[in-house]
Design goal:
The chain has helices at residues 3-8, 59-69, 72-89, 97-100; strands spanning 14-17, 21-29, 32-41, 44-53, 56-57, 101-108, 112-119, 126-132, 135-142. The protein is α+β, with helices and mostly antiparallel strands. The relative contact order is 0.13.
Length: 143
C-alpha cells in the first residue's frame, strides 16, 4: 500500500454475502464499511453501493436493495416517468431508458435509494432518481 493508502485508506475487505455473492469494500472508517455489489439490473451491469460493518451490509439497506431488485419493472417504470419529465422540460423527446441512458449505480440510503443513469449523448450528465418505497420522489442532475 502506498503512502496515500496508508494515510487515507485501508485494505479492501471481501466477503461472500448470502444474497449477493462476493462483495467488496471500497471505504472503511472505524466500524463503518462501504460495500460495492456488482449486479445485472435494468439490462445493464451496475454497482450497488451500500454501508454496513465488517460483517456485511446493514439489514435495513439489505432490505431496500432486495426490494428494489425484486421489483425491477416498477423501478424501470418510475425511472422512465422521472426521466421523461426531465427530458420534456429540456424539450427533448423521450423514447426509452435504453435509447437515452445507461444505468450505472444504485446507492442505498437510510430511507431509500438513488438510481443513477448516465446520459448516452450530449454532456454525459448523470440523472439521479431518488426513491422511497420504490417510488421516485425527485431527480438531481450532476454534470
Amino acid at each position: 500500500m502506498g503512502i496515500f493508502g496508508k494515510l487515507f485508506g485501508s485494505k479492501k475487505l471481501k466477503i461472500t454475502d448470502v444474497d449477493f455473492g462476493e462483495i467488496e469494500s471500497f471505504f472503511t472508517k472505524g466500524n463503518k464499511v462501504s460495500w460495492r455489489v456488482k449486479k445485472r439490473f435494468l439490462d445493464s451491469d451496475i454497482e450497488i453501493l451500500s454501508t454496513g460493518n465488517q460483517d456485511g451490509i446493514s439489514e435495513n439497506q439489505r432490505r431496500i436493495i432486495l426490494n428494489a431488485l425484486n421489483n425491477e419493472i416498477e423501478i424501470k417504470t418510475e425511472s422512465e416517468k422521472a426521466l421523461n419529465e426531465e427530458l420534456e422540460n429540456a424539450e427533448i423527446d423521450f423514447i426509452s431508458i435504453e435509447k437515452h441512458f445507461e444505468p450505472k449505480a444504485l446507492s442505498v440510503e437510510d430511507k431509500g435509494f438513488v438510481m443513477s443513469f448516465q446520459e448516452k449523448e450530449g454532456q454525459n450528465y448523470f440523472f439521479n432518481i431518488h426513491f422511497e418505497n420504490n417510488k421516485q420522489i425527485g431527480v438531481s442532475i450532476d454534470g
